[in-house]
Amino acid sequence: MSVHKNKNTSILLIYTGGTIGMIKNSETGALEAFDFQHLLMHVPDLKNLDCSISSIQFDPPMDSSAMGPDSWQKIVKVIAENYSLYDGFVVLHGTDTMAFTASALSFMLENLNKPVILTGSQLPIGMLRTDGKENLVTAIEIAAAKENDMPVVPEVCIFFENDLLRGNRTSKTNADNFNAFHSYNYPVLAHAGISINYDTVQIYHPVSRKPLKPHYLLDRNIAILKLFPGISPQVIESILNIPGLKGVVMETFGSGNAPSDDWFLAMLKEAVDRGLVIVNVTQCRAGSVEMHRYETGYKLLEAGVVSGYDSTTECAVTKLMFLFGHGLTPNEVKEHMNCSLIGEVTIPENIYH
Ligand code: ASP
Known about the structure:
It contains nine helices and 21 strands. The protein is of the alpha/beta class.
């Protein structure tokens, strides 16, 4: 369905679901997914944008807490099939797992040179105080922005409450506020005030103009192991011995520290020796893992744990799914975890891991 035609820039809106398009069930009071027409009805201003907008919707629209690799593949397929027809893509998505989807899409859309902007809202678009209208309109403006006929933001991003953030650097950090997303380890790519100010130095620009290469293979045999003081050997052991498990994102303390108990280190080493890739990310919102900094971190390094540097958990999980999905060996996966594939991680000049 076209909202506006005959304008030079064309945007495809992909409505997957989420609060932005929901409506209150009058009997239960619960928010339920509603169709895209309802959403557009509440934003007549879309007609005034200087671009033509077409849309496609997931049927039925999904709460993002029910989304995962199958839905990411669906989004990639829609983008790949429509890539040559549009200048940019806006993905309307529930906020709960938007950061996982954005990270996954950044790996799955190789050679992307058009904007893919994810957005949603904390309040449904039909509500008086909704944040959905601003988010939607500005996300479309960003996806349509061009300079010298080239897209200003040719990467996967999240736009939310005035800020444009790199998708694979972002986490949902607030369940209530309109300001729900943060990218603590990478600067904001654009800020929308009276005008939209882009930080062109920080925006990723593809080095080659190769055709888009969509990827669909993902391996779900990944787990997150969040450490806490007093964690028991049974918990560690049962996670590390999940049948078929290939990768673990281990959330450690501070700059990558963990207990130095012999049983703990021995379990990690035994798991690494049989081919499990264990990636160390910090539980802190900002900052990086530096395993050489303290003895406790150093012991993890000796056990064969690899650094996730300043990666978000969302990014480390989806990167492992992507790498194992493509049949890489544990050693090849480790090598790739030590590289930035698409600006998702900051690797220090002198790698100690
Ligand atoms: N549960 C909703 C979702 O993620 C929340 C939201 O959209 O903000 O789909």
